Amino acid sequence: MGSDTEMMDEAHGAPPGPRDAQAPSPTAPPRNRQRDDAFLLELGQRVRRIRAIRGLSRKHLALSSGVSERYIAQLESGLGNASIMLLRQVATAIGAQLEDLVSEAGADTREWALMRNLLRRATPEAVSEAKAVLAGERRHGEALDSGRRRSRDRVALIGLRGAGKSTLGRLAAERLGWPFVELNKAIEAETGLSIAEVFSLYGQEGYRRLELSALEQVITRQGPMILATAGGIVAEPVTFELLLSSFFTIWITATPTEHMGRVRDQGDLRPMADDKAAMAELKTILSSRESLYARAEARIDTAGTTVAASERALLEAIGAAVTP
């Protein structure tokens, strides 16, 4: 299965129907219909965007949340008119917090999510220091320093499934004499479960917790290495920030058609159940994640090239990074 559930087939639900009529309460304040509609539209766009970044098809989200595909289609089109309990179910299934979906338009929900999760993981002393800086009680230059020093001979490959991360990473590591690590293999070794079993037992949120734990363990290993990550690692702010601050990151890219073809060549035919729908979903995922993948410090385009040529390009990028 792999952690990239984006390669699952997309089975769209029935087209959204009209919004259910609701009689207003005689004591309720007058509604601002334009404002409400704008809020529902923004809410739907956020659900779709987060779903795409996390690589969840609408069908998979419906199964994991217990909410019908029809309802999710309505929600994403701005016609959700959802109860708070249904929203909580959707947020949990996506692996997001409810406030990520309902905060005011214009808020940088990704930055807020990162800060929130960092604060939750911080020690009481670190929280006090952060509060002092934000309140102006400490000068900016006195802010805490994580103390992490990234070595540029520790390389992480990011990108969508089928880009060639594992193939190229393994070849380059052999050529350099460095260890090669696949983060999903580390999760499997730690849990004794396949990635498919992890998703089945613990869902998207459980997988992301295990992914962060595995990354933290890999970081403790000494010396150079090449690490291949799952395509969806960019979806979790804390995990991705930790990766960026600990490794020299390289984005391995390919065209959507090549992504599909390579996954099929690996023997996984599930994405081919409906080529047209699967390709549309794949393009949506790539578009949603592009700005996140682009935070990598180098990029290797494998489109239309041989494995040998791509390997040379990767070795050149690594060589340029480690050479003073």
Q: Tell me the fraction of residues in β-strands, as a range.
A: 5-15%
Shape: globular
Q: What top-tier CATH class of the largest domain fits best?
A: Alpha Beta
Taking all Cα atoms into account, the compactness measure Rg is 22 Å
The largest sheet is: 5 strands, parallel
- Strand tally is 5
In whole angstroms, the N-to-C terminal distance is 40 Å
Order of helices and strands: HHHHHHHEHEHHEHEHHEH
Query: What topology, given as strand order, has the largest sheet?
Result: 2-3-1-4-5
Unreliable stretches covering 5 or more consecutive residues: 5-29, 143-149
The helical percent reads 40-55%
Name the CATH homologous superfamily of the largest domain: P-loop containing nucleotide triphosphate hydrolases
